[in-house]
């Protein structure tokens, strides 16, 4: 791990440069695989870091109605922006939170998605999926699929987008694979932000960018989530699945994101399969961009919302979007 970060490249906003200038915290060490109490403490530490990172990104009071709900037996939060005229008839975005497969649940499941949810002309269902150490694979994927199935039943697939960040990106892509296997119609669009698509960590950036933005590999968390299954299984590492027929997809990463190879390789696989796909790689951005409070983050959020709107406006029978790099 380098002692100092590289200097910020030219062209970044002052806010992004300030983020890069902050001292890096030490990565939270993973417990032993069989230390269940240690994993619960590990999740609490990650949650505390997430709370601090989200402090600057929350909507104002009254802008977003948040309701804890149960959807098809799975825990979730329904997020309805105050400006939405008809919530009952609006499209649904199924949001899947990040957190290394072991953290980010409870209220963090919706708070992480609030900046996007408050600006959507759609209802957001943020899934508070079950996680290890108490609930290893396939519990999280089962919860996400159950919520997606209900969204399709209520709105139809052309009125549903699935979105996920980091670990949530893993679950979002795995959900599409699982939905196809179950004979379900696929969503109108798929959004994968800094996605953890390869739990085997075989991509080049897992070596070349290690330590560049303070994020360390988490191989034990992946093994804990897998519950003894092969990490190369496509339901655990969707990068290795058959992406033929995937819905239009938006991919994002950064040049200092440890997961950059995940996005780049999935982009290539989707292009080869003829899937309409857009890729955004943010200059000098680490995992999760710059924390949400920079012009670069704002531009990315605007791109994501525009992609979702186009996907939901497309022909419900699957009229394709044009591929863009």
Q: Keyphrases for this structure?
A:
10 helices, eight-stranded mixed β-sheet, disordered C terminus, 325 residues, 15% strand, Rossmann fold, alpha/beta
CATH topology type: Rossmann fold
Structural class: alpha/beta
Overall number of domains = 1
The CATH fourth-level homologous superfamily: Alpha/Beta hydrolase fold, catalytic domain
Report the principal-axis shape. globular
Termini Cα gap: 31 Å
Calculate Rg over CA atoms. 18 Å
Explained architecture:
- By secondary structure, this protein is of the alpha/beta class.
- The chain has a single domain, classed as 3-Layer(aba) Sandwich (Rossmann fold).
- 34% of the residues lie in helices and 15% in strands.
- It has 10 helices and 8 strands.
- The chain has helices spanning 14-21, 36-54, 108-111, 114-117, 139-155, 167-181, 205-208, 219-226, 260-272, 295-313; strands at 64-71, 74-81, 92-96, 123-127, 160-165, 189-193, 249-254, 277-282.
- Strands 1-2-4-3-5-6-7-8 form an 8-stranded mixed beta sheet, with helices on both faces.
- Helix 9 links the parallel strand 7 (249-254) and strand 8.
- The radius of gyration is 18 Å and the shape is globular.
- The model is unreliable at 317-325 (pLDDT under 50).
């Amino acid at each position: 791990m380098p002692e100092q970060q590289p200097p910020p490249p030219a062209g970044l906003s002052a806010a992004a440069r300030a983020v890069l200038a902050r001292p890096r915290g030490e990565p939270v060490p993973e417990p032993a695989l069989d230390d269940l109490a240690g994993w619960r403490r590990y999740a609490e530490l990650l949650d505390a870091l997430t709370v601090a990172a989200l402090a600057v990104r929350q909507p104002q009071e009254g802008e977003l109605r948040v309701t804890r709900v149960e959807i098809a037996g799975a825990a979730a939060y329904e997020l309805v922006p105050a400006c939405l005229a008809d919530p009952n008839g609006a499209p649904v975005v199924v949001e899947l939170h990040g957190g290394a497969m072991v953290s980010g649940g409870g209220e963090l499941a919706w708070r992480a998605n609030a900046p996007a949810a408050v600006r959507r002309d759609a209802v957001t269902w943020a899934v508070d999926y079950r996680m290890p150490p108490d609930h290893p694979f396939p519990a999280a994927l089962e919860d996400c699929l159950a919520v997606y199935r209900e969204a399709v039943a209520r709105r139809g697939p052309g009125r549903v987008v699935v979105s996920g960040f980091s670990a949530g990106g893993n679950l979002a892509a795995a959900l599409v694979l699982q939905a196809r296997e179950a004979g379900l119609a696929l969503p109108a669009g798929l959004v994968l932000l800094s996605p953890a698509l390869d739990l085997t960590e075989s991509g080049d950036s897992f070596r070349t960018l290690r330590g560049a933005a303070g994020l360390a590999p988490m191989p034990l968390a992946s093994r804990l989530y897998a519950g003894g299954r092969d990490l190369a299984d496509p339901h655990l590492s969707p990068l290795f699945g058959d992406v033929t027929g995937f819905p239009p997809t938006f991919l994002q990463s950064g040049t200092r994101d440890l997961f950059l190879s995940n996005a780049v390789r999935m982009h290539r696989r989707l292009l080869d399969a003829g899937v309409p796909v857009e890729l955004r790689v943010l200059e000098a951005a680490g995992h999760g961009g710059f924390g949400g409070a920079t012009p670069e983050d704002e531009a990315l959020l605007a791109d994501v919302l525009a992609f979702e709107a186009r996907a939901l406006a497309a022909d419900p029978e699957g009229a394709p979007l044009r591929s863009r790099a």
